[in-house]
Amino acid sequence: MTDVARVAGVSHQTVSRVLNGHPSVRPATRDRVLAAIEELGYHPNLAARALVTGRSRTLGLVTLETTLFGPVTTLYGVERAAREAGYFVSVVSLGTAINPGSLDDALARLREQSVAGVILIAPLTSTSLPQPSLPTDLPVVVVEGDPEGAFATAAVDQRAGARAATEHLIGLGHRLIAHVAGPPEWLEAHLREAGWRAALADAGLVADVVLAGDWTARSGYEAGRALAKMAGVTAVFVANDHMALGVLRALHERGRPVPEEISVVGFDDIDEAEYFTPSLTTVHQDFDELGRRSLDLLLCQLGSSSSVAERLVIAPRLVERRSTAAPEGR
Amino acid sequence: MTDVARVAGVSHQTVSRVLNGHPSVRPATRDRVLAAIEELGYHPNLAARALVTGRSRTLGLVTLETTLFGPVTTLYGVERAAREAGYFVSVVSLGTAINPGSLDDALARLREQSVAGVILIAPLTSTSLPQPSLPTDLPVVVVEGDPEGAFATAAVDQRAGARAATEHLIGLGHRLIAHVAGPPEWLEAHLREAGWRAALADAGLVADVVLAGDWTARSGYEAGRALAKMAGVTAVFVANDHMALGVLRALHERGRPVPEEISVVGFDDIDEAEYFTPSLTTVHQDFDELGRRSLDLLLCQLGSSSSVAERLVIAPRLVERRSTAAPEGR
DNA sequence: ACGGTACCTGTTAGCGCTAACATACAATGG
DNA sequence: CCATTGTATGTTAGCGCTAACAGGTACCGT
């Protein structure tokens, strides 16, 4: 910076002013400084700036180590939004084995780094997710999780999506609708099951066929084999598309055609869902939008310095394809 | 730090020494300092440390904005390895629309942040990927890309994987083996096609049925429809599992049973591949290992400060499942 | 002509930390 | 007993930057 100042014939402070867009710099001076910067290939040292201002323009992004469609897409959404807002994104994953202190460790790491705030992609239930020793000094936005907690949250309305999926099946005339659930430690698994139950209850139907899954196609396959043997079940709402793939495979193997004998609805609308056999009716979530809105929420907190526990909800959308139809004999 | 020093009754420099594990600190003194740190909840300011040392213990990770299995898994692999080595990971995605300057922008952003080095997940061909104005001052490791460039690279041996897949089909007795290729701007698409060609050439077979795809199940589906009409083709090597899914769907629709009439091999071994109909024979890549080895390569460069253009290759592995069989009439 | 008020630019201090040197004190050997 | 080494600690300077204040110059009204 001193070099730039010397070349431009000004003081280093004037260079700083140009860099920070301070208004009272004469255009001619500004141009000379910019020319010197260009000539020397100068780039400001952000560590020095962070040291003196106390702000690092870096956000922490904590995520589970999963290649699941939702969290990954959310990650990119947040990164892009952050970049456009002039922030860096420091990613810390919680690893595959989540132990009690791992979230604390992640937050401690990020606090050391003087991040301005943290976005936590944590689709687990509060009890499964190690509770942090509340970092009230650090703005946090939780994405896809913890609607009961003290933090601001942003999420797609899982319950509404599950309800829409189930009501679609009810509307087609199905009366015994099973559910293949996600793993119990995932909040989304609970909410999707809750939405399914609520829709059935509203229609006066029973909700007693629940099969446990773990998001993988393999677990969906196991559930599908069990479903194939159940006589009365004419439809199944599967908690995500990957498990739905397994269900389709099992039903196909067991000679239970979809949708003729059994209708299947998934959740997520992954890119491949349209190319399953048959193409999958599912619930679409706009994760990109979610990332963007989460960042807005965080920046809003930074601006107002008030840590309001705001709730931001994004509506999902049912995508009807070929895996659902009216039950036979109606 | 001054506060800690006062509480412990030492100088701030002694606190610094304790923090950095300097040997000549008396155990009693060290304990007092650690107690003071604990008592005050002190955490070192990394910006200040980075400013004075010139090293930020942060790595840049540049990636394409894709939810494709490989890049995402590599990302986590790198993050975990970096965390274990005590490094932060700052992620910059190149966005969906790659314009000429975007890689330069990403590198400039990271250089400003004083990252120690950069890991670039860039599975595109050198011509498709915007070439950076060589940052010789910044250690770079390219993952899954650019074997001709000046940088150190780490990659799974795509050509060997494709060759293994094709040789598997040849071994089963297939003579006319088609290929569904990835998009031309992807290096991996080229290498997989090259491996296919090489295997066919070695066996004295022709390699003239190539269908263009773009990694998506949709493009695979289109390719599959075309394949279904081709009389002599008894096997197809598809450049990734997602397209293979589309191929399977199209062949099923057109009444061409797999593997009875046509054998299909994919590439990637995504979690779902086992649950395709039929389960997919494919090529497995260990992306986790890849992430780890890439980091090793980068840290090695940092240590030796020599920017050797080392090549690190990881062997893939063919996974045989139910989508391949000997051609009919043999 | 003068003080006032803009506007522009320079000077100084310090953010929290580590490197380098300076100092103190003990242990050792001749 | 003193010089010599080693170990443990303190002191000083400075990393590159911004905030706060201190000039300096031009322009205004009176």
Describe the structure.
Two copies of one chain form a homodimer. Chain A has 330 residues and is α/β, with parallel strands linked by helices. Chain A folds into three domains: 2-44, lambda repressor-like DNA-binding domains (434 Repressor (Amino-terminal Domain), Orthogonal Bundle); 54-157 and 287-316, Response regulator (Rossmann fold), CATH 3.40.50.2300; 158-284, Rossmann fold (3-Layer(aba) Sandwich). Chain A is built from eleven helices and twelve strands. Chain A has helices at residues 2-8, 12-19, 27-40, 46-53, 69-84, 102-112, 158-172, 187-202, 217-229, 241-253, 287-304, and strands spanning 58-63, 88-93, 117-121, 140-143, 152-156, 177-181, 210-212, 235-238, 263-265, 282-284, 311-314, 317-319. In chain A, the strands form three sheets. The first copy, chain A, has a six-stranded parallel beta sheet with strand order 2-1-3-4-5-11, with helices on both faces. In chain A, α10 links the parallel β8 (235-238) and β9. In chain A, α1 (2-8) crosses α2 (12-19), α1 (2-8) crosses α3 and α7 (158-172) packs parallel to α8 (187-202). The longest helix of chain A has 18 residues, at 287-304. The mean pLDDT of chain A is 89. Chains A and B meet through α4, α5, β2, α6 and α9 of A and α4, α5, β2, α6 and α9 of B. The structure holds a DNA duplex (30 and 30 nucleotides).
Outline:
By secondary structure, the first copy, chain A, is of the alpha/beta class. Chain A has helices at 2-8, 12-19, 27-40, 46-53, 69-84, 102-112, 158-172, 187-202, 217-229, 241-253, 287-304; strands spanning 58-63, 88-93, 117-121, 140-143, 152-156, 177-181, 210-212, 235-238, 263-265, 282-284, 311-314, 317-319. The termini of chain A are far apart.
